[in-house]
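[Meeting: bench + compute handoff]

Bench side (C.D.) handed over the final construct sequence. Compute side (W.E.) agreed to return the predicted structure before the next meeting so the bench team could plan truncations. Sequence as handed over:
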Amino acid sequence: MTLLLRTNDGKESSSNDVFMDAVHLLNKGNIIAIKGVGGFHLACDARNEQVAEELRKRKKRKDKPFALMAKDMDAIKKICLVSPKEEEILNSNRRPIVLLSKKPFCNLPENIAPGMQKLGIMLPYTYIHASLFSDRLDLLVMTSGNISNSPIQYKEPDAFVALSSIADFFICHKNDIEIPLEDSVIKVFEGKESIVRKGRGYAPFKIAMDMVKSDILALGSEQKGAFSISKDGFGYLSGCFGDMKDMKAYQIYQYAIGKSLKDIDSNPSIIAYDMHPSYITTQYASKLEGIKIPIQHHHAHMVSCMAEHNILQKVIGIIYDGTGYGTDGAIWGSEFFVGDIKDFERVGHFKYVSLQGGDQSIKEPWRTALSYLHALGHDETEYITVPGKDKKTVIKQALNAGLNCYPSSSMGRLFDCISSLLGICQTITYDAQAAILLETILDPDEKVGYEYKIYKNKEEQLEIGYKEIIENVLRNIDEGISVKIISARFHNTVCNITVDMAMRIREMWKVNTVVLSGGCFENTYLLSGVLERLRKEGFDAYYNQQIPINDSGISIGQLTIGGHRGDSGDGSFCPEK
């Protein structure tokens, strides 16, 4: 492979040793864009706080943790705790990023992963990467080659345009990359490999689906765009292409669909997609040939887990996430279902709150907290500090008038509310930041939870009130209780509520199998706490492992549901005939 070292204005280095020069440049505090097998990375010395901060500034990545690449396992073990299973995965031929707990006295700069107790680290997986290290240089930042929230760059001409303001130098090769793939992200949970993001080495993922007979294309979600295709009794899950609202990401996603259909020789007769009417995937589905089957977001989450574990019987589905369009037009996100791989009944959820601001409420947790306090009749100004008094006044007026407000049962927004009330995060710069930081700071030794109420609403569904929870949080704040204790108590409360609801539903419906899915269950404390309590109560409990528990895994659920509904000829699920 012929390698070229270029400056960021495209001039080629005259050196005969690209790697010697690259190591020297990295040691001197330069940022280098490196073309790999799935796209470009941006690399710098991970021990150099100043250059890491400069990379954040240039890349417009204020807080989101950087991925790291280590010279070898010894370099990793100097800064992180590594279990035998984690070491096995790090050394595997797929070489993913693995999320590892930092050692208590980890000496890396804080700006590598601000506020985090875990680091995402991988080992070199090409000769190019392995040649960038030296005795002095044992850890590199190895982050995606892009401006934050944009697709990874993978074509040289485009990369020079997009990254020349970030990278000081480029290392390129002549091999073309047809479809970009991010590095896969893995964590070890209960001693097993659990997929956070499927990418290089893990996608496409092949799963046996004997129950699905037709060729089907499932379009996935919008924010973590990934699709699935069925052929001859197997499902194929793609890598994650990012936010479909980004035009470049959407174009790559469409191209990947076309290429995958050709490679697998699939001719879909059924198109399954998220039922949200405004999603780009919904608009895309309308342009495709075939039977159109809209799938409820949280049912797809539930069935993605059922398909992975080959569960065919009726289950209790518990789905916690941030956003999902409900059958009543509200935004769901704390759902208790009883159902199977074809149908579901919603039997419980958290009480709706009127959130103000649409997508802005997701980006600004203070806005969500203000909405909850307004619903409870509390003085919003007492607990929330927001830059600009006028902004808070405008939102209060909008809440009073019901302007740009929407009903939501989202568990993700409830986590955001608590994070804001505790002063942990008021504005997010990456997905789920407020909830992630809320988990990170909790005291694991605190076992107390708050009081809560569950009652039947007018639809005869079990409804969980948020009033008692939030008022207990506010009282603890007034009492000067540590935010670490309050966070733990809130988490414990959600765990207790989840199992209480499961027990009530089991009594009513005589179902003992529970399926857990949705992005909020990326929270390890929440997932482990719920599983421990469910198993203690005698439930058979399952969660996503090889299929991501977040939105990048729902297309497998759509594929399964679409197959059963389409093959049964049930036209009630087909708005376009």
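W.E. noted at the follow-up: The two ends are 53 Å apart (CA to CA). C.D. will use this when planning the next construct.
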